[in-house]
Design a protein that fits this description.
Layout: E1 2-5, E2 8-15, E3 18-23, E4 37-39, E5 42-44, E6 51-52, E7 69-70, E8 72-75, E9 78-81, H1 93-103, E10 108-111, H2 118-129, E11 134-137, H3 141-155, E12 159-163, H4 167-170, H5 173-181, E13 186-192, H6 208-211, E14 218-221, H7 228-242, E15 245-251, H8 279-291, E16 295-299, H9 307-317, E17 321-323, E18 338-341, H10 348-356, E19 359-363, E20 379-383, E21 397-400, H11 403-413, H12 424-442, H13 452-462, E22 468-471, H14 475-483, E23 490-492, H15 503-514, E24 520-525, H16 526-531, H17 535-541, E25 546-552, H18 557-565, H19 580-586, E26 590-594, H20 600-609, E27 614-619
Length: 625
């Protein structure tokens, strides 16, 4: 039987009336001797049949490998084993890597510990014991990469995801692509099979270099002779500076090599990126803005961390403010010039003002076809990335510069006698019209479930003004874009990738980022939640204060809608679901089911008040979205 003493595992044997105590690892390939058997007087390794004396560990004649053996003594109260003192833990390559990523600001790692990443896992355990790192063990590696992506989107800082070789690492890819296309910094760490068997068809031996070549801006295998701190430094720097994915692969044996190497730091490695546009371009932009009678500001997710100077400038010139869907919440719907979301997930207010404008000033947006920015209007586009300027079509004035710096310079360049356009009353009137339409929709009832307008009216009223909201993909997302009223909320979504299943893992990443200081809410449909439903147990394990508003219609509603839209028969979009409220309770969380609009306020309020993970499962009408 196996016996665990401190960090050591022994196999305790009983043979011919005596007890033996051997190291549990077979010296051949590390097989667990306690899982073997004693046959014909020999303790046989269960992996490859190597034999050892069960009392003293000696091998048969002609062999010289043997597991360490320890003296035993039988007393009245048990069997005692004479063990040498445990050796002090040595500093390893993994420690160097972990200390370096901590120095670069990594405070959270989402992942799964396994046989090919144990050395790095132990280094993270040490860092966590020092209070430098928080590790969140997930149920599926895809949830780890989604959580890290959401963390980066919300904060602009670096989180890491962590997996074993082979399938553990390939499971990371979808969430990493989400980070890549939405420009979120993420560090991915993969265990790898031992170098000795790499490329020889070993168990879980995959060519991870090739598998990650497209998704990772920086990718490297850490070898025994590498400059380990420098590789981690380059990985962290690339992820942060390029707002992209970095990936390190760690062969199993390299993780445990003893090292006295110093950890890397970001000191002197990153410059100030608050770049200003050239004076000539700035002057031309001001000429266009001051000549405009109806300018409109369109704000993208690239402006998330620099909204204040953009809003100040809009107020100075009287420009209505609309956002892309990814940027929902960056301008509150309660702002006098706030017009909501533009495009397929948007409001008629935003589209009205785009149609009526004579100049579009676009800040940190990517011109997605889903946003529908009118290319026939005069356009000023401001972005720090030269490749983003005029990405899909030419614009009248591309402005290369940091959006916050550029907005401040434009405000300073406004003539003192500049008269702003007075659009506040017009914005208010368009809001009134849209509010009446939403109230009408909230009253719709076909007797087949709650409608989306009512759900998001209730949620808008219930949650904190600064809550973080992670939304999934599907009809629930489009309805959220149209109906939810933002104030100072932060909204996270799988933007360009549009990956179903994002909602709950993203909320986990947000929970890690805000540290209990802000309310965290997830919005998902039953199709999206079903992909990572067991991560609800992760939320329970770590006592994550997350409330999931789950829209349940027993189908992939958006796909059904698309099939109808192109006059196909609705086919294979149905779902078989559990009782989600009961599921939540069986996992150790809070769960409630809503079947009528009148139940929404109480159910959502109670779930938000619950300290821990909660699910509000709303039975919805798939046509009233």
């Amino acid at each position: 039987m196996p016996i665990h003493v401190g960090s050591r595992t022994l196999v305790l044997t009983h043979f011919d009336g005596a007890f033996g105590a051997l190291d549990n690892r077979c010296p051949h390939q590390g097989g667990p001797l306690a899982e073997g058997s004693i046959e014909k007087g020999w303790l046989r390794c269960p992996w490859h049949g190597y034999d050892y004396n069960p009392l003293n560990g000696s091998p048969p004649e002609g062999f010289d490998d043997a597991p360490p053996c320890f003296a035993t003594q039988t007393r009245e109260d048990g069997v005692y084993v004479a063990l040498p003192p445990e050796e002090d833990r040595v500093r390893t390559v993994s420690d160097v890597l972990v200390e370096t990523m901590v120095n670069w600001g990594v405070t959270h790692v989402f992942g799964m510990v396994g046989h090919s990443n144990l050395g790095f896992a132990d280094a993270m355990r040490e860092a966590e014991s020092r209070g430098e790192l928080t590790y969140v063990g997930i149920r599926h590696e895809g949830a780890a990469s989604f959580a890290a992506s959401a963390y980066g989107k919300l904060t602009g800082r670096l989180a890491a995801c962590f997996a074993i070789a082979g399938p553990g690492s390939t499971n990371l890819l979808t969430g990493l692509y989400d980070a890549k296309v939405d420009r979120a910094p993420v560090l991915a760490i993969s265990g790898q099979v031992p170098s000795k068997v790499k490329g020889r068809g070993a168990f879980q031996d995959l060519d991870l270099e090739s598998a990650f070549a497209d998704v990772a801006r920086y990718s490297a295998t850490v070898q025994a002779g590498s400059d380990h701190a420098e590789l981690m430094t380059l990985a962290c720097k690339t992820a942060l500076v390029q707002r992209d994915v970095s990936h390190l692969m760690l062969p199993d044996e390299v993780q445990m090599i003893e090292s006295d190497e110093s950890a890397g730091t970001p000191d002197g490695r990153v410059g100030d990126r608050h770049t200003a546009p050239s004076a000539d371009v700035l002057a031309e932009a001001m000429k266009m803005i001051t000549a405009s009678k109806r300018p409109l500001f369109i704000v993208g997710a690239g402006s998330r961390f620099d909204m204040s100077p953009i809003v100040d400038l809009a107020e100075r010139i009287g420009a209505p403010l609309v956002t892309t869907f990814k940027a929902k919440g960056q301008v509150g719907d309660d702002h006098p010039l706030g017009c909501g979301v533009l495009g397929r997930s948007g409001t008629p207010i935003a589209s009205w003002f785009m149609n009526e404008s004579d100049l579009l000033v676009v800040w940190g947006a990517s011109f997605s076809n889903h946003t529908g920015i009118a290319d026939y209007k005069p356009i000023i586009q401001v972005d720090y990335d030269p490749m983003a300027l005029g990405r899909f079509h030419g614009v009248d004035l591309p402005v290369l510069g940091h959006v916050g710096v550029t907005a401040e310079l434009m405000a300073a360049a406004l003539p003192e006698d500049h008269e702003p356009v007075d659009c506040v009353a017009e914005v208010e009137e368009r809001r009134r019209i849209w509010a009446e339409e939403k109230r009408s929709r909230a009253m719709d009832d076909r007797g087949r479930g709650v409608n989306s307008a009512a759900i998001f009216e209730s949620l808008s009223a219930a949650i904190d003004d600064d809550a973080v909201i992670a939304v999934d993909v599907g009809n629930n997302t489009y309805s959220f874009g149209r109906y939810f009223e933002t104030r100072n909320h932060s909204v996270l979504m799988s933007g360009y990738l549009g990956s179903i299943g994002f909602g709950l893992p993203a909320a986990m990443g947000a929970w890690a980022a805000v540290g209990g200081k802000r309310q965290v809410v997830a919005v998902a449909g039953d199709g999206g939640f079903g992909q990572y439903a067991m991560e609800f147990t992760t939320a329970v394990r770590y006592d994550m204060n997350i409330t999931l508003i789950l829209l349940v219609n027993d189908e992939l509603g958006k796909i059904s809608k698309e099939q109808r839209g192109v006059e196909y028969d609705v086919w294979q979009t149905g779902l078989t679901n559990p009782d989600f409220a009961e599921f939540a309770r069986s996992c150790g969380g809070y769960g409630v089911t809503v079947r009528e609009s009148a139940e929404l306020d109480g159910a959502i309020g109670d779930a938000l008040g619950h300290q821990g993970p909660a699910i509000v499962a709303v039975i919805t009408d798939p046509l009233l979205v």
